[in-house]
Amino acid sequence: MISVNILGAGNVATHLFKAFQKSENISVNQWYNRDISKISTYKNEVSTIDNISLLEEADIYIIAVSDDAISKLSQSLTNKNQLVVHTSGSVSVYDLDKTLRRGVFYPLQTFSKTASVDFSNVPFCIETIDKQDLELLKNLANAIGSQWYKISTEQRQTLHLSAVFVNNFTNQLYRIAHEISDIQNINFDILKPLILETANKVQHMSPYMAQTGPAMRNDKKTIKKHLKSLENEQHKAIYKLLTESIKKTHGR
Amino acid sequence: MISVNILGAGNVATHLFKAFQKSENISVNQWYNRDISKISTYKNEVSTIDNISLLEEADIYIIAVSDDAISKLSQSLTNKNQLVVHTSGSVSVYDLDKTLRRGVFYPLQTFSKTASVDFSNVPFCIETIDKQDLELLKNLANAIGSQWYKISTEQRQTLHLSAVFVNNFTNQLYRIAHEISDIQNINFDILKPLILETANKVQHMSPYMAQTGPAMRNDKKTIKKHLKSLENEQHKAIYKLLTESIKKTHGR
């Protein structure tokens, strides 16, 4: 049995709490948040506290607060026996107070407030200063059915950047398609199967191999037609730049 | 029973042939291609021909050739009783020879040569000059288990452009993430669940509502850090432009 204390009340903290509660191999001892009202919904399931000095021992403290608050919060921890991890993609493991046993437990996934999370689809990037602590984080990931990867701080920061491309930027391309098709009164539902298949394809094929379309074929006629029909200058610039990028990748 | 003749031997022609063969309500009478060797694999399943004057009557002729070849091929059709449709996203229905009963049967999906296609995930954009012919295309889509949408030529061209954004450009963002993570010896598998979830999210939520990340929050510190770590100038330009686009969409 792994005992855990959670610090913070955002999406990651809340989804982790729910997953830990479901696991037979994890017990959540305490849940701390500065503003206790944000976790009061769960007060019958777990000991909720807003006074950090009341934190008791546990195998792992999980700091799931905003990036800027991690370092300072770690400095206020007085118990020195537990492993203390943060869940951020971009903060270094060394930003945690150096008197602590330190590590990182970063879930590489997008979380909504409302939708429930299937943790079998959430890979964790794990890192510890002390090699011996790695086992504990592996077991924690396993206990909620998640994959884990041993990832250094530098690699994690690169993954965080890559995630911006495949998640935020990709989502913005969906948004642009939505805008363009709205103008012509086209139901966005028509594009949904293509969106899904595009993501499915690279599950078993490299993005390089999966590429198709006018840029890939250097089909100048279609590219010109598309650029002419785009009215929004920013959309035009995005079309041009990504077309150039595809042509460069494929030596066109 | 709907009788069909297929013209062309590319991905769309081949996948349609296979789907039609499986359907109880469709019979493929003839399959024409200029170069008969490309369809000879199927000569025991269907009458294959390379002489266009041998085409016999059928309810629908499906022209699934490259965009540039559609108009000319339609001019060589001498039987005038069947509905003639092309399967292109960007060619106008009026590009088909005007002496014919004309229409469009455009599958909005990405096809691989090798992978088999589940047509329940392929929406068809259908259009006919004569309203009465619409029913025939609806029935054809239904007979292979596909959704259909009544879409004008102008709307279809917009959808084709939108498809470039959600398919080709999105795939290029996956490719860039692959490149960036390769430099740090990161297994691309770690990003696959996020890619899938990003596509899943917009199946039941608008891309506008689904957006998260540093650009959305206007988190200048992270944006600056990311730009600094990108070495490739083109990747940097794409990061900047899509960040600006997200900020504009969300009024940041």
> How is the quaternary structure best described?
homodimer
Rg on CA atoms of chain A, Å: 22 Å
The overall number of domains of chain A is 2
Order of helices and strands of chain A: EHEEEHEEEHEHHHHHH
Order of strands across the main sheet of chain A: 3-2-1-4-5-6-7-8
CATH topology of the largest domain in chain A: Rossmann fold
Helical amount among residues of chain A, as a percent range? 40-55%
- Per DSSP E runs of 2 or more residues, the count of β-strands of chain A stands at 8
- The CATH homology group name of the largest domain in chain A: NAD(P)-binding Rossmann-like Domain
**Corresponding CATH architecture of the largest domain in chain A:** 3-Layer(aba) Sandwich
| Helix/strand/pairing category of chain A | alpha/beta
Q: How does the major sheet of chain A shape up?
A: 8 strands, mixed
- The rounded distance between the terminal residues' Cα atoms of chain A is 57 Å
Query: Biggest chain pair contact, residues each?
Result: A-B, 86 and 85 residues
What is the overall number of helices of chain A? 9
**Large-scale geometry of chain A:** elongated
Question: What's the CATH class of the largest domain in chain A, please?
Answer: Alpha Beta
pLDDT under 50 segments of chain A (min length 5)? none
Round the mean pLDDT of chain A to the nearest integer and report it.
96
Question: Strand-residue fraction of chain A?
Answer: 15-25%
